[in-house]
Design goal:
The chain has 341 residues and is mostly beta strands. It contains no helices and 29 strands. This is PKD domain-containing protein.
Length: 341
């Protein structure tokens, strides 16, 4: 409706009169809304942008509800994708604006949100960390930045940190329509702990501890296996917690064994126990095999020894002949030393 200011003469005296005249324009429906997507319940404000001075409005929100206000606010309580229609009218006619799939409402479980955990988050290098995705909204792709110039596109990757330092970790999740990012500052802390070392009979043992674990590096001049046995009963393998490993075609193979006799040993798993070795790495270069690993100080396994920080233990070191890439070949060299954990 348009209004006009008219000057009228009544008995020769001018008067100002405000007149309302009908518009000669047909309405053109148009609108906007904010926000267009979000978590249920989602409160949306609709704003009429129609031309032609409509004098009535009819909104249809796509879920069976409607409004006759010019600029309504409406709350969507249920997750879904909603079409929105606005019908505007004046004396000249009617027009309709329709937006398909205009409002997107998601539940908490549908909302795309990056989230993750990791275990462990600290320890000495090399530290193997299991990252676990806890993102919501059913993402279809993942990108991990581990903060050490390494990355992964797996959903639940395992990554080994080789150097001491504090590392930020970032996870980006996405689907066909959007993405979300979570960055955790200083999330992984690799402690710079010095290894203690002993070398006997050509076999080198390095070790260090944190609150819960013992970390070991053993190396010898062989292309076969190397092993370390903790707390043997006598001068041989009996009752020792033995870790034995070798490298074949660049891949380290390590098993957790128990000394079943003077010279015999068997995998803990074959005896009903568990293999508790973790953070396994290994190299075979220039005729030297080196194996690195971690074991719990107290695994609770009947076939492992409980080790106490500050206590001294006998340790049996051994290695096999060149090419003995197995867990059963007889040793070529063996020596017993004493170390303090």
């Amino acid at each position: 409706m348009k209004r006009y200011l008219v000057i009228a003469l009544v008995l020769g005296i001018p008067f100002l009169v405000l007149c309302s005249l009908s518009t000669d324009e047909q309405p053109v429906a148009d609108f906007t809304a904010e926000p267009l997507s979000g978590n249920a319940p989602l409160k949306v404000t609709f704003t009429d942008l129609s031309a032609g001075d409509p004098d009535s409005w009819k909104w249809y929100f796509g879920d069976g509800y409607h409004s006759g206000l010019q600029n309504p606010t409406y709350t969507y309580d249920t997750a879904g994708i909603y079409d929105v229609t606005l019908i505007v009218t004046n004396v000249q006619g009617t027009d309709t604006a329709y937006e398909e799939s205009y409002i997107r409402v998601v539940s908490d479980s549908q909302f795309l949100g990056a989230n993750f955990t990791a275990e462990p988050t600290s320890g000495p290098p090399p530290l193997e960390v299991q990252f676990t995705d806890h993102s919501t909204g059913n993402p279809t792709s993942y990108f991990w930045d581990f903060g050490d110039e390494k990355s992964s596109v797996e959903q639940n990757p395992v990554h080994t940190y080789e150097e001491a330092g504090s590392y930020n970790v970032t996870l980006v999740v996405s689907d066909e329509e959007c993405f979300d990012t979570l960055r955790k500052e200083s999330f992984i802390v690799i402690e710079d702990v010095e290894y203690r070392q002993i070398t006997e009979n050509g076999i080198t043992l390095k070790w260090k501890t944190d609150n819960d674990n013992l970390y070991v590096i053993i190396s010898a001049a062989t292309t076969g296996w190397v092993s370390v046995g903790f707390d043997p009963l006598g001068e041989n393998h009996k009752d020792a917690n033995i870790i034995i490993g070798y490298v074949k075609e660049g891949i380290p193979w390590v098993e957790d064994h128990f000394g079943t006799g003077q010279l015999e040993h068997a995998a803990d798993t074959s005896l009903g126990g568990t293999d508790d070795v973790f953070n396994v790495t290994g190299t075979e270069e220039a005729g030297i095999t080196q194996i690195s690993f971690g074991i719990p100080l107290d695994s609770g396994d009947d076939y492992d020894k409980k080790l106490i920080v500050g206590e001294s233990y006998k340790v049996i070191l051994a290695h096999g002949p060149d090419g003995s890439d197995d867990f059963v070949s007889r040793h070529l060299k063996t020596v017993i030393v004493s170390i303090t954990i």
